[in-house]
Amino acid sequence: xxxxxTERGIWIALTGFVALILAIGVWxxxxxxxxxxxxxxxxxxxxxxxxxxxxxxxxxxGDLWVADFIFTSCAGVCPILSSRMAGVQRRLEEAGLDVRLxxxxxxxxxxxxxxxxxxxxxxxxxxxxxxxxxxxxxxxxELIGKGFLLSVSERSPEEAGDSGELITHSDRFVLVDRQxxxxxxxxxxxxxxxxRLLADLESFGG
Length: 206
What we know:
It contains six helices and ten strands; from the N terminus they run H-E-E-E-E-H-E-H-E-H-E-H-E-E-E-H. The protein is of the alpha+beta class. It has one domain: 3-Layer(aba) Sandwich (Glutaredoxin). The chain is globular, with a radius of gyration of 16 Å.
């Protein structure tokens, strides 16, 4: 069963990686222009937030939002990504921009709503602005791979090696417009890219 899930995760990861390469290729053709390209549309989803409330993609209709992907037991990139997102939250507030932030767990077996609530508190998340989501594992991986066009996969302890991380996932922040369309990808670990994200958000009028 675990082997089948791992293989499915690898397939989704490869699909997401190929799609992302194509999307970046399209995006690069638009670089230097005044308007960001439409890369893809986020498909409908039904997930659960840190309060246990059901959240649908349609709940974000009309909102500008930024998504990233984390898990609460991650000791690698996730703390950096969440610290960066906390910085984005602060800068949005300072600039008076009305943008929602969405962090989606890649480890739903551990990331229950209470676990996400504790994690959100750790990073000073404003529940009115920053939402943490979890859900059923296969649905999440499908959404990340085929919807957001990003990689996510599980690996064995042998594959994890010294890092001990059993899940690998993208470090990208994703800008989604008010029609639910992906308009940009940004390296969440790179401060310059986060600055570019803020500039692009401002160009939408926040």
